[in-house]
Amino acid sequence: MAKALLMTGALAISSVAIAQVDQAVLDRGKEVSALCVACHMESGAGSSIPGVEYRPRLTGLDAGYIQHQVESYKNGTRVNVSMKPFADLLTEQQLHDVSHYYASLPVVKAEDFEVEASEETLALGEKLVYHGDWNRYIPACVACHGVDAYGIGNTFPNINGQNPAYVKKAINDWKEDSRTNDPLHLMSRVAKRLTEADIDAVAAYLASQPAAKEEKK
């Protein structure tokens, strides 16, 4: 009995310590986020300069995924002239902390874009997201990105509710091999099989969906 109580007490102390460490990480991450808010906003919803640059939503993304993307800017497997200097500023600890901070925030969708697409375009996007086009060896987005494309772990992100212009640029970067940080080059292979109409449709459909899984009807 005494041994059981001792173990229970140890576990309780351990849980408190973990909670304290986690909060410390979030507190430090919030401080580091001061570098990010000008582009990604305090809420993490992202922002855009139409025709110039599109900054993605960070909320609703896994911390490990965010960390990997910033590391990619550091090592050149993902290229963005605006992100590179900020990525290089961050230490490994700072990157860890700020990634977990943004991952902890409520999932919000930027309000600075509208989805302008025909019903036919949205229908094509929905088809590609859920069914793909196996006649052209294009798998469904949900095959990797999970149920309703809300992401799986630190490899396949939640791709709903992002600015469609950002999604189009991301796919085209893979298509043109200017982004090479995807596992086993899966996205590069898929992107090369997509037409411009396919990319427009997928981007529009995903942008029209709620960023938070809980809001999906």
From TrEMBL:
Domain of life of the native organism: Bacteria
Keyword set, alphabetical order: Electron transport, Heme, Iron, Metal-binding, Periplasm, Signal, Transport
One Gene Ontology term of the molecular function aspect: heme binding
Pfam families xref list: Cytochrom_C
Cellular component, GO, one term: periplasmic space
Binding site for heme c 1: C36, C39, H40, M83
Protein name: Cytochrome c domain-containing protein
Taxonomic lineage: Bacteria, Pseudomonadati, Pseudomonadota, Betaproteobacteria, Burkholderiales
